Amino acid sequence: MKIVYTGIHYDAYGSTRRPSFEYTNFYLTLKTLPGVEVIEYPFDVIPEIGLDKFNKRLLELVDKEKPDLLFAFMYTDELDKAVLEKIKTGGRTRTVAWFADDYWRFWNYSKNWAPYFDLVVTTYSKAVDWYRQAGYKNVLLSQWACNVKLYKPVQTEKDIEVGFVGQYKSGRGRVVEHLACHGISVKAFGFGWPGGKVSQEEMLQVFSRSKINLNINARGSLADRNVLGRILFRKSVDTIKPDFHIVDNLRAYLHYPIPHTHARPFELAGCRAFTISGYSEDIGSYYEENEEMVFYRSLGDLEEKIRYYLTHASEREKIAEAGYKRTLSEHTYEKRFQSLFKHLGLQL
After folding, report:
1. ∠ at Cα 274 (104, 162), nearest 5°?
2. In CATH, which superfamily holds the domain spanning 160-219+258-330?
3. Can you give the pLDDT at residue 33?
């Protein structure tokens, strides 16, 4: 099977930054699948050559290579709808877009691109009905997973009581501050936290060193200026532009506070790390509560569960082991792609 993969190679188009989430998890997984030849066509060249030339070259690449699949992990408006329509109707290449954050981006982003792909993939269960109500039946529910080649257990002493790795955001900050006010110290690492950024290797060390790992899915306030900005502005490649689709933007804005399922719980479980995760509508479909992962529904609930599990090491280890086994058996990106290929009728 031949696949053309298109997406961001480096985070936010920054060549000095680390490889993007989608590159490390989607592209690198595709590269290792037996029977798959994958050609990367990264968005990162767009600021240099422009959208028109980028899309012209994409069409030329597809015409030349005749791939079985064009797989896009879109970020903003990198792809040209007319070019996508030509590829889609060409009869040779199936086209798939994997959309992130459909719990809010469906309203002012994803639904506008759905007609131009043979299949769109969402990770939010309610969005399936939203697509269908909008007239699009070409939707598949999937989910984030664990790249087991990058995330794995590390043998080390557990000398951190409560750990967190992830970029500082206001909602996360409020959770950590609440816990600190109630006598629970969280060692937080990532951009914006006192612990600072950590490498992949250091992150795995933190996961394995922590008796309890937190997945904090608290959202920013609707009054936050960064959230308010989503009503009138949108990203276009590496810039911000005005956007006057007020109704769609308002619906997206109002859905923004929904707690959603992150990739992090799958990555933590793949490291055999005991995890207390903020509850979301879908996470319980992937891990059994209190058997494979622990969920919290309020700050008081989180505080209570941290105190309990800090003093019950054997229960932590049992839950972490069960979550680890579930992840390896069901929640890897290899499994996600196998399901996707099967849905499309593509044979490895």
Report:
1. 85
2. Glycogen Phosphorylase B; (3.40.50.2000)
3. 97
Task: Using alpha carbons, list the distances in angstroms from residue 221 to 71, 79, 119.
Answer: 34, 31, 33
Convert the chain into a string of H (helix), E (strand) and C (coil).
CEEEEECCCEHHHCCCCCECHHHHHHHHHHHHCCCCEEEECCHHHHHHHCHHHHHHHHHHHHHHHCCCEEEECCCCCCCCHHHHHHHHHCCCCEEEEECCCHHHHHHHHHHHHHHHCCEEEECCHHHHHHHHHCCCCCEEECCCCECCCCCCCCCCCCCEEEEEECCCCHHHHHHHHHHHHCCCCCEEECCCCCCCCCCHHHHHHHHHHEEEEEECCCCCCCCCHHHHHHHCEEEECCEEEECCCHHHHHHHHHHCCCCCCCCHHHHHHHCCCCEEEECCCCHHHCCCECCCEEEECCHHHHHHHHHHHHCCHHHHHHHHHHHHHHHHHHCEHHHHHHHHHHHHCCCC
Give residue-wise pLDDT tens across range 77-135: 999 999 999 999 998 999 999 999 999 999 999 999 999 999 999 999 999 999 999 99
0.85 exceeded by the pTM? yes
| CB-based contacts of 211, cutoff 8 Å, min separation 6 | 158, 160, 161, 162, 274, 309, 310, 313, 316
Residues of the chain with pLDDT > 70, as a percent, come to: 99
Contact 296, 327 (CB under 8 A): no
Pairing relation of β-strands 160-165 and 187-189?
parallel
Question: What does the pLDDT average to over 51-73?
Answer: 98
Domain ranges of the chain: 2-144+332-344, 160-219+258-330
Please indicate whether the domains covering 2-144+332-344 and 160-219+258-330 agree at the CATH topology level.
yes
Half-sphere exposure of 18 (CA within 13 A, CB side): 9
pLDDT at 230 over 70: no
Averaged pLDDT of the chain: 94
CATH 3.40.50.2000 describes domain 2-144+332-344: yes
